[in-house]
Amino acid sequence: MPTCGSQIPICDVPIRYDTYTGCTHACSYCFAKRLSDITQVGLGETPRQLLNFIQGKRSSVTSWCDWDIPIHWGGVSDPFQPCERLHRRSLESLKVFRETKYPYIVSTKATLPAEDEYLDIIKDTKVVFQVSMVSERYNKFESGCPSFAERLEMVKMLTPYVKRMVIRAQPFVLEVEQDIIDAMPAYRDAGVYGIILEGMKYRTKRADTEKWYGDNVLKKGLLKRSFQRIKEEAHKHNLVFLCGENRLRSMSDDLTCCGCGGLEGFEVNKLNFNSFNLGREYEPTKAQQTTGTAGAFITMLQGMEHKYGLALKKLSFDEMMKLHHNKHNKMIS
Fold first, then answer.
1. Is the link from the previous residue into 171 a cis peptide, with omega within 30 of 0?
2. DSSP symbol at 142
3. Where are the domains of the chain?
4. What's the predicted TM-score (pTM) here?
5. What is the separation of C-alpha 255 from the centre of its chain, rounded to a whole number of angstroms?
6. Pairwise CA distance, residues 330 & 45, whole Å
7. pLDDT, tens digit, for every residue of 161-198?
8. Strands of 74-193, DSSP E
9. pLDDT tens sequence across 194-222
10. Which of 83, 86, 187, 304 has the smallest count of CB within 10 Å of its CB?
11. Helix (H, G, I), strand (E, B), or coil: what is residue 153?
């Protein structure tokens, strides 16, 4: 069943769907490696579970959502990695999206979606397509992926058939700033809507990093200067600048950094820190104000579920989001 991850307080599209577990793309920088052995690829959620969610069935962690929120497909595992040729679970999921016309956002580094069998279905779905591609320099760090050039060719093929095409330049490092700028004319000519940036998270401390919660992240000032230059260049090429870096979210042209903001039929969740911190208007839904809908926050308890799980059942999503925000502000003040 589609579920929520630990990004629930800060993400406008926090409900994710993964047809596979693990990933054979073998990106050396992958954050998921810290959590599990991603080389062990297996089957994830099913098209039947996807359809159940679309038809209104909610779990304890999605009970707060009483509307057709876009689903983010490929949150922790690429849905079009090589094992898809064998299992075809993503192909069957695409058929569900086509039949229901349910909104979704897909993230991938694979070129399989451009093949006729997949493209023939994708063109009849309601999708914002995200392709992760930073720079040709990353080819050596993404040994199991199609090359940067191959992904660019896929972007050109797919763009006419999707609601929006977005480039995910994540994880960003300072050394590729000019590479991203140099690629913008090609993105513009391919019909790309915008580009998302988020900085690299390092396992060890470096001279150019600082601690942000449990991560070693690039210093805010360094990122801000680089992002500003990229943003200005993006606008020259009529590309939307989207900032997935939580510390710099105010730089984004749209607080919904996944690229579906303002798109008809893609109603996101605005009851989160982005609205609280940056003055965006929001209105809690009936479900979000209903006692017992705070279950999504259990994904953040990290081993303390038994201690606080019962308390969540006594709170609404709205109450828990505001309590968590107050606690967050005290921690960083």
1. yes
2. B
3. 3-163+260-332
4. 0.94
5. 13
6. 37
7. 999 999 999 999 999 999 999 999 999 999 999 999 99
8. 103-108, 126-132, 164-172
9. 999 999 998 889 999 999 877 899 999 99
10. 86
11. helix
